[in-house]
Amino acid sequence: MTARPAAAACALGALFGCGRSADLPSDAHWTSAHFDYWTRATETEACPDILGPLERHFSTLESYLGFSWPAGTKVAYYKFTDGTDLGAHSDCPSGAGACTPGTSVESPTGLDTHELVHAYLFPTGFPPTVLVEGAAVALSCTAASYATPKPTIGWEALASFDEGSPEVYPPGAWLAAYLLDAYGPGPFLNLYATLPHGASAADMDAAVRAGYGKSLADIWAAALAEDQPRNTCIWQCSGPLLALDGQPFDGAGVCGVDTTRPFAVDAEATIAFTANGATGLGLGSCGPVTTPNDFVFAIPSVVTIFHLPAGRYFLQNGSQPGTIVGTADASATLNHDCAAATDGSLLDAANVFIAVPPGDAPWFLALPPTAKPTLAVLEAGGGTAALCTSCAPGAACTDLRSQAVDVVAGDTLRLTPDPKIPWSGFMPIWE
Predict the structure, then answer these.
(1) Is the dihedral of CA 91, 231, 325, 383 positive or negative?
(2) Phi then psi for 327, rounded to 5 degrees?
(3) Dihedral, CA atoms, 137, 142, 147, 153, nearest 10 degrees?
(4) Radius of gyration of the chain measured on its C-alpha atoms
(5) Contact 76, 105 (CB under 8 A)
(6) What is the pLDDT of residues 223-257, one digit of tens each?
(7) Are the CB atoms for 151 and 138 separated by under 8 Å?
């Protein structure tokens, strides 16, 4: 959520909490070229080292967007200890999770990628809310979370959302992310700078025609013709590619900041990540490929197995110390060919998550090699899971979604994805 400076904000009354007596964090102050960072004395997540990722975030977005930044101006970042502290003591509207008055950020998150976009673009302009919030959603790599339900409003309504309206985020995600990805940041930044906040639908259509050579109706129809909004994960996908070479790497990041590392899958493959100590493990896409990015694991040790199409992705994890191992080929663990699923060693972990795309053919996994307890329960998030007596066609199989089953030598796990959803997720639980 963004907010204008005091005079403009107060004109909007209660929306921006004018008249409230804010108690902004001020006990500790860290400064860099583009940031003044303030925290409470009780802050436990962020530390002075966070200025490094903040400066890299600024330079990455500045390079991509090409926005102009006033000389000598700094983002004033007020890091609240948590949502309760923010709700009681910030300038944010009631119920907001964070806000951006001008080039100031007020947030309980150490590096709030959404609010920082608002701060960076504040000197550029203040277009209709659908572009303001849409830009922040797209450039914080969260557009994919608005894939369903797809917006149903017509193009004529895109300019009419009020500031702070929760209904603006889905259409904003679909529109802004499409404009940025399909046409690049140049025309979008010009539109952002020239279209006034109170523009009518006709004004917005005229500005889009001037900048893109197409009507807003055609742009909107093209965006909605796709399966999902186009994420613009510039920050998450920057940096050198991670090697999935089976060698452990340090998963620890800077205090208060999730670490993101891009990697490439050159051809469709089953890959795996094994985390030991590192938490918050998750997966995202650097392109138009859907990923099981809703699955993020806060537990400190987990094995994740994904079957992915070719493309560029990023691995995300929290700042806690620990190691992560990437495996480029885990086809001997998870395979359409039951006879090829011979390596169950990855399933020896205490916490295992498996995600597969939709399809007609089932997937098979070998059982763990060590003497596990004799009962296995497999919980499925979409799709079905069964324990089969062998790989042979017609082998007896028992549904594992609601019961524990005795495991004997020669058994195999069969996973059948749900063809109606982008990803089916499975978690084997050994009892």
Answers:
(1) positive
(2) -115, 120
(3) -10
(4) 24
(5) yes
(6) 999 988 998 899 999 989 999 999 999 888 889 88
(7) no
CB 57 within 8 A of CB 235: yes
Look at strands 245-250 and 334-335 and give their pairing.
unpaired
Distance CA 33, CA 49 (A): 14
Q: H or E element: which one contains 37?
A: strand 35-39
Helices (H), 66-200: 83-89, 113-121, 129-139, 169-183, 185-194
Helix (H) or strand (E) holding 36: strand 35-39
**Is there a cis peptide before residue 187, judged by omega within 30 degrees of 0?**
no
- Between β-strands 75-79 and 35-39, what pairing exists: parallel, antiparallel or unpaired? parallel
Beginning with the edge strand found earlier in the chain, give each strand of the sheet holding 311-317 in spatial order: 259-265, 311-317, 282-285
Q: What is the pLDDT of residues 318-347, one digit of tens each?
A: 888 889 999 999 999 999 999 999 998 998
% of the chain residues with pLDDT over 90: 67
**Which amino acid is located at 226 in the chain?**
E
Q: With contact defined as beta carbons under 8 Å apart, do 130 and 161 qualify?
A: yes
Q: Pick the residue with more confidence: 323 or 288?
A: 323
- Show the tokens assigned to 224: 């909605």
Angstrom distance (rounded) from CA 51 to CA 31: 7
β-strand 424-430 against 352-356: which pairing, if any? antiparallel
Contacts of 255 (CB under 8 A, 6+ apart): 45, 46, 47, 49, 50, 110, 319
Q: Tokens 């959803």 — which residue?
A: 421
pLDDT of 14 above 50: no
Our measurement of the distance from residue 181's CA atom to the centroid of its chain's CA atoms, rounded to an integer in Å, reads: 16
In the predicted model, is pLDDT for residue 16 greater than 80?
Answer: no
55-105 pLDDT per residue, tens: 999 999 999 999 999 999 999 999 999 999 999 999 999 889 999 999 999
Query: Mean pLDDT over residues 18-47, rounded?
Result: 90
CA 205 – CA 195 distance, rounded (Å) = 10
List of E strands, 251-362 = 259-265, 269-276, 282-285, 301-308, 311-317, 323-327, 334-335, 352-356
Residue-wise DSSP of 198-258: T--HHHHHHHHHHHHSS-HHHHHHHHHTSSS-----TTTT-SSPPP-EEEEEE---STT--
Q: Which residue in the block uniquely carries the two structure tokens 């002075």?
A: 48
pLDDT at position 420, please? 87
